[in-house]
Design a protein that fits this description.
This protein has 413 residues and is of the alpha/beta class. It contains 14 helices and 14 strands. It has 3 domains: 8-175, P-loop containing nucleotide triphosphate hydrolases (Rossmann fold); 187-277, Rossmann fold; 284-398, Rossmann fold, CATH 3.40.50. It has helices at residues 24-32, 74-86, 106-117, 134-142, 165-175, 213-225, 237-243, 258-264, 274-281, 285-293, 319-332, 366-379, 386-393, 397-401, and strands at 12-18, 50-56, 60-66, 93-99, 122-127, 154-156, 195-199, 228-232, 250-253, 271-273, 303-308, 337-342, 355-358, 383-385. A 6-stranded mixed beta sheet has the order 2-3-1-4-5-6, with helices on both faces. Strand 7 (195-199), helix 6 (213-225) and strand 8 (228-232) form a beta-alpha-beta unit. It is globular, with a radius of gyration of 24 Å.
């Protein structure tokens, strides 16, 4: 994705589900007017979830997710079906593609129940209408699904003949969840022409030639606010602050140099981190603050899960696999064990972990981040994130929250 593209986490995620040869890939190609997905008469062409970020009118920026067939068989087939079900956790809108010549099957009904259980807006799309008469279409639906043929929950289309594809786009657009609450990363914390200093370390782990996504998104949000961004490394932070005519309204730092920034930035200047800003943006800050407090309760032999939402090449001094474990051991003085996950892999069984420390989740949409929080809550495992944990271990969490006019003791759970 280019730097000017809408981040995946900010796009509506549309999950395409159904049995093999129901026409999932053909529907995607018909919706986009492009040959994005491989189409074949051979069952099981799509073996893993395929995510494609694109513009889909009249919705705008979306992520289309083509999933493996729900009726896949064998040991590998079972794993593929599990992956299809896992995609529900990041799906904002679900399309259940049904072969109209076959009708709803047990596989279709099972995933439809999961879609309803997760309260995901959905549409049942009966494909291959060109092979069915109007009378047989109504009969196929009423004999295999509820409610009846007048329902707004289904639509007959033909991917091959392009029948009702425009109406399908319109129906999808109407399913987009409305969000009346205005959520900002930082825009609501500053005023026009406020000076904001962003502390961005450039080390071996930093991507060559670009900034990481949270930094890009924060700068864009500050531009929307009419504020002025000054981006510096931690090595130039002190000298930069000394050269500014007026103190900045806010300093935002990368988590891994939180301690260094806190020593340099005067106490009367608000200071927080990208991770904490994104925790607030995704609505998880109060829970993550509570999770950070649990660090004090860790004991010898406890296992901590460190999870990242994206995948990247690990460096020798990686924050997730090297720095965080080292800081936790030093802070607690305990012999701790660590497990690591990245990307879409998130354990279904969490009981063996005493604490989960997650990245800022900039690549995950809100639904998946909340799903992971709920999994942790259901398992009774506290969860926090990098920035919140680092601030807590360095004794600067209270200061990091002052910009939001809240204190850790006043956060409700």
């Amino acid at each position: 994705m280019s730097m000017n593209s809408t981040p995946s986490s900010e796009r509506v995620h549309i999950g395409i589900f159904g049995r093999r040869n129901a026409g999932k890939s053909s529907i995607i190609n018909a919706l986009t007017g492009q040959e994005l997905a491989i189409v074949s008469d051979r069952k099981g062409t799509t073996t893993d979830p395929v995510l494609k970020a694109m513009e889909l009118l009249p919705l705008g920026p979306v992520v289309l997710i083509d999933t493996p067939g729900l009726d896949d068989t064998g040991e590998l087939g079972t794993l593929r079906v599990q992956k299809a079900y896992q995609i529900l956790n990041k799906t904002d809108i679900a399309l259940l593609i049904v072969d109209g010549t076959v009708g709803m099957t047990e596989d279709d009904t099972n995933i439809l129940e999961k879609i309803k259980e997760k309260k995901i807006p959905y549409l049942i799309v009966f494909n291959k209408s060109d092979l069915m008469s109007a009378g047989s279409q109504a009969h196929t639906y009423t004999k295999s699904a509820d409610p009846g043929p007048g329902s707004k929950e289904f639509l007959w289309v033909s991917a091959s003949a392009k029948t009702h594809i425009h109406e399908l786009k319109e129906r999808i657009a109407r399913l987009v969840p409305s969000d009346d609450a205005q959520r900002y990363i930082v825009r609501d914390l500053v005023s026009p022409l406020d000076l904001v200093v962003l502390v961005v370390p450039i080390d071996k782990a930093a991507p060559k030639g670009r900034l990481i996504l949270p930094q890009q998104q924060t700068i864009r949000d500050l531009l929307e606010a009419g504020a002025v961004s000054v981006v510096v490394r931690e090595t130039e932070l002190e000298e930069t602050l000394g050269k500014l005519g007026n103190p900045p309204a806010l300093v935002i730092t990368d988590s891994q140099v939180f301690k260094t920034a806190a020593k340099i930035v005067p106490e009367d200047i608000p200071l927080t981190s990208f991770s904490i800003l994104f925790a607030r943006y995704k609505g998880n800050l109060d829970h993550l603050v509570k999770g950070a407090r649990f660090i004090d309760s860790l004991k010898d032999g406890d296992t901590i899960l460190i999870s990242e939402g994206c995948t990247h090449h690990r460096q020798c001094d990686d924050i997730g696999t090297v720095k965080l474990p080292g800081w936790l051991k030093a802070f607690t003085g305990k012999a701790l064990n660590f497990a690591f996950t990245s990307g879409i892999d998130f354990p279904l069984e969490l009981d063996r972990y005493r604490l989960i420390i997650h990245c800022g989740g900039c690549t995950l949409n809100e639904r998946e981040m909340k799903y992971r929080m709920k999994c942790a809550g259901d398992a009774g495992v506290p969860m926090t994130n990098y920035g919140t944990a680092i601030a807590y271990m360095n004794g600067i969490l209270k200061r990091s929250l002052e910009i939001f006019q809240i204190e850790p003791a006043n956060i409700s759970y």
